[in-house]
Design goal:
Length: 286
């Protein structure tokens, strides 16, 4: 079987998940290519592939705009389609995030067969503690060993529907134009910046430039946090969302635990349910 995985990722969680899918599918004998979704969007030839996978981080209960724009560019086709998403929290409302993406692709004829969602460390709102981030990361990687094999064995898998999810997701899609405006408010603190230019290199929408000794943030921000999360000196402020900024990679070598931070009770029941269901799925693997 031949798979094409199309991946959008800001701080790196989703690309890590996609790479794990790639390695499991390849171990099972499949041919797999991955293609990062970045601007400018170029037409892609999906003719050689049996299965198309779209991987994205959930942004405000939606797929990021660049992912929807990419889907609009895909050709009409009846190929099999699966969707994989990552999120910071295990809310059922996140399941509605793919509705718009699916409506675009189903209209084009794609045959939607599988969908999976993984909790990964937050890159926005607040920082999970490292023990909790380690637990999320290792749970997701173990789950993929189960989930990827469903694809190979043609076992369909869908996520639970969220009542009113479509309406709520539609309302939150205001995030798309809002983030373009907010992106223009990003600033670099000259006193902290070490001119490594990683932010420019990391930006998937080519939204940042450096001219005449100054950084410029243009009109194409999709609020992926690739620049601000990975800045080695935490020099970038992210407009009105600055108090929600998370900067710096998580250390994923800590002992797994429920988090000890001031946010320890945030969505606690939903996380407990997510980990319990994941453990069950991993134990009962096919
Ligand atoms: C602008 C923005 C909005 C987000 N909205 C949500 C959300 O609605 N629900 C959620 O669970 N996580 C949300 N997150 C968290 C990310 O989905 C999560 O950290 C994801 O794993 C990041 O993946 P990446 O590293 O591939 O970009 C949001 C993150 C950003 C930057
Ligand atoms: S990543 Fe940070 S330190 Fe490096 S150039 Fe950009 S703002 Fe400056
Ligand atoms: S400016 Fe930063 S947050 Fe906006 S798209 Fe580029 S990397 Fe992502």
């Amino acid at each position: 079987m031949k798979f094409a995985l199309f991946v959008f990722s800001g701080s790196g969680n989703t690309v890590k998940i996609a790479n794990k899918y790639k390695s499991i599918l390849e171990d099972d004998g499949a041919e797999v290519i991955t293609h990062m979704i970045t601007l400018p969007l170029n037409e892609v030839d999906i003719t050689p592939y049996d299965f198309i996978g779209i991987f994205y981080p959930i942004h405000a209960f939606n797929a990021p705009k660049i992912v929807l724009d990419f889907a609009k560019m895909l050709p009409v086709s009846n190929k099999k389609l699966f969707i994989v998403k990552t999120s910071g929290e295990p809310l059922i409302l996140n399941n509605a995030s793919s509705l718009k993406l699916l409506s675009i692709l189903k209209k084009k004829g794609y045959n939607f067969t599988n969908e999976y969602s993984y909790c990964m460390p937050y890159n926005m709102i607040f920082r999970h503690d490292d023990g909790f981030a380690t637990k999320m990361n290792s749970t997701a990687l173990k789950l993929i060993e189960v989930d990827a094999l469903e694809l190979v064995k043609s076992i369909p898998h869908y996520l639970k529907k969220c009542p009113m999810g479509g309406v709520i997701s539609f309302v939150f899609r205001i995030e798309h134009p809002a983030m373009k405006v907010n992106g223009k408010l990003f600033r670099v603190n000259k006193n902290k910046c070490v001119n490594c230019m990683q932010c420019i290199k990391n930006c998937p929408t080519k939204n940042i430039s450096f001219e005449n000794g100054k950084f410029h943030f243009k009109n194409n921000c999709t609020m992926c946090t690739a620049c601000s999360f990975n800045c080695p000196t935490n020099a970038i402020s992210i407009g009105v969302l600055n108090s929600w900024k998370v900067n710096g990679r998580y250390s994923l070598t800590s002992e797994e635990c429920f988090q000890q931070t001031t946010h320890k009770n945030y969505c606690k029941k939903a996380y407990i349910r997510y980990f319990d269901e994941a453990d069950m799925r991993i134990k009962n693997r096919i």
